[in-house]
Specification:
Rossmann fold, about 50% helix, about 200 residues, 9 helices, globular, five-stranded parallel β-sheet
């Protein structure tokens, strides 16, 4: 076990390229723990959060397979702050339990460092004391819109609602220990910039 393995938190707005950077860090030796993947597993068919979600929001919150209908709930919570808070109160405690379990499992393998992929790192202040470094993957709002449209065709208005509900670009940059600008560059260049950031962290 390497209990002193540094913890790097990576965040960025929708369409920033955060997940791509996390993948590069994993390839460079980091043990990746994906907070969003944990959330998805808890809300998948048979997931631990499903009974509470059904009780709170009704069967209309579930898809045909019995998992949370992510599209329907996304629309609901981004238009109703109270619904969003209610969903978070149900899911977040389960997320923290699973993240801690995965962290302990990863440390037992002796990684050089841990990488936490956290979309809501800035919004959830609980993260800051747990991390040695925060890396923010940054790009312009226009680029975010273009990437989300190219990736999944999401309606621009819905994309904007998600961006409005997330921390602002300024808030993310204010909490960053390192900023990785992902604007107007190729994947190869992004990989190189990720390696450069890792080098500056001496990991």
């Amino acid at each position: 076990m390497n209990p002193r393995a540094p913890s790097v938190g990576v965040t960025g707005g929708i369409g920033s390229g955060k997940s791509t950077v996390v993948g590069f860090l994993g390839a460079l030796g980091g043990a990746v723990i994906d907070a969003d993947a944990v959330s998805r597993s808890l809300t998948a068919p048979g997931g631990a959060a499903i009974p509470a979600i059904q009780a709170a929001f009704g069967s209309e919150a579930l898809d045909s397979l019995g998992g949370m209908d992510r599209a329907a709930m996304r629309t609901r919570v981004f238009s109703d702050p109270a619904a969003r808070l209610r969903l978070e109160s149900l899911v977040h405690p389960l997320i923290w339990q699973e993240l801690d379990r995965q962290r302990q499992a990863a440390l037992s393998e002796g990684p050089a460092f841990l990488v936490f992929d956290v979309p809501l790192l800035v919004e959830m202040r609980r993260w800051r004391p747990m991390l040695d470094t925060i890396v923010v993957v940054d790009c312009s709002p226009t680029t975010q819109h273009e990437r989300v449209l190219a990736r999944n065709g999401m309606d621009p208005a819905q994309t904007q609602r998600i961006m409005d509900a997330q921390a602002s670009r300024a808030q993310r940059l204010a909490c960053a220990d390192r900023v990785l600008l992902n604007e107007g560059i190729s994947l190869t260049q992004l990989r190189e910039r990720t390696a450069e950031v890792l080098h500056t962290l001496r990991l």
